[in-house]
Each structure stands twice: as structure tokens, then as C-alpha cells.
Request: fold
Amino acid sequence: MWSRDSPAWLWAGLLALFIVALVAGAIAAVAATKDEEKGRLVVSTGVGKTATVGTIDPGTETIGSTASIETITGPTTQTIATLDTSTLTTSTTVTTTPSGNIRSWPSGKEGYTVILASVEVSKGRDDAERKANQAIANGLTNIGILTSSDFLTLNPGYYVVFMGVYDTVAGAQSGLATARSRGFPLAYVREVSP
Reply:
């Protein structure tokens, strides 16, 4: 029979089990929420509202599906979406801007730039292009990629995502705040010399 006179270790053990159960429940709830959010299919209703229509498992390469959207007009506009899961193909790679907008460092040019990110050459140029496209999608302009090994003032072995080609350090610093406020908080100014 348990009472207040029970050993202290017994009460400490019960308290520890209770805390473990709470933590496990919290972890399970967070994991379930993240899994649920991964595959949502969202459709705009055309009147400033968004509705979640269904879910798609992003881990499945090909589900096969078609979606049809029917709009009903009247005093208010309603959009009804129907999802046929027989032909849907999902992809986890999204390119927001074509790589053709990414520039190179001008040949023979000495100057300054804002370094947005560096990616080890061993990881491939695709990672650098994704970061460059992200910068363009965030509204930054004059975005380019250079290979650091081609320049004396840069550490070799990296693809460097940069913003702008400036004649002075002050010119480069003028764009630094914009770069940091648009998704690249670790951006910095660097001299680039061939």
C-alpha cells in the first residue's frame, strides 16, 4: 500500500516515468504534425482564401494523378478541386528561376563583391546554383557563381555565389544590408582579384 511514508526513491521513479511519458508524447505530436504538412495540396479559391484539398505522400515517386478545378460564379466565387490520384507524379526538386539568369565574374576584372554563399567543389555546382536561384527568387539582382580557385584573393576549392561586381569596397558594402535582409544573414564583402 502506498502512502506518504513510501520510500523517496519510489516517488522519484514515478516522477521520472511521468516526465518521460510527457516528452515522448510531445515528440510524437511534433512528428505527426510535420508528416501531415509535407504532402498538402493547396488550391487558391480566387477570392483571397486558400483551401487545403488533400494530401500527397512526397516519398512516393509516382502516384499518378490529375486535378480538375471547377469554378462556380455568383455573388461569391467558389473553386472546387477534384484530385484523381491515378496519374500524379511528384518531385522534390523545385527550381524557382532558370539558371540562365546566373552570371559569371567578368574575365580579368578586379573588384569587390558581396559573397552570399560558398559550396565546396566536391559537393557539385548544383548546390551553388540552387543558392543562386534562391537569391534571385528573394529579389536580389546581379547574382553569379565563380570558382574560387581561379582567384588569388579567395580560398580555393569552392563555388562562390556572389552579388554584384563593384569597383570599390564602399560600393559592395552598399548592397550588403539588402543581401542580409533577403535570406543571406551571413553575407560579407570580399575583394576578387584574378
Observations:
- Helices lie at 8-38, 125-137, 169-174, 176-181.
- The radius of gyration is 27 Å.
- Confidence is low (pLDDT under 50) at residues 36-82, 87-98.
